[in-house]
Write a structure and sequence with these properties.
The chain contains one helix and four strands; from the N terminus they run E-E-E-E-H. It is α+β, with helices and mostly antiparallel strands. The radius of gyration is 11 Å and the shape is globular.
């Protein structure tokens, strides 16, 4: 399992071959938060966009 940390939260990184994208699943949340991106660095960018839109 590959892990990354974002804003103090751990996230599990997996490759989804069916979608041909990387998936980041935030861990330790009471709800779910998944982000998808073609490259690993887009996962953090996607999280920032979601945060600004909220």
């Amino acid at each position: 399992m590959n892990l990354m940390t974002y804003n103090g939260y751990n996230a599990k990184i997996e490759y989804d071959a069916e979608l041909d994208m990387f998936r980041r699943e935030m861990l330790g949340l009471t709800g779910g938060a998944d982000f998808y991106g073609k490259r690993i660095n887009t996962l953090a960018q996607e999280a920032l966009l979601q945060r600004v839109a909220a």
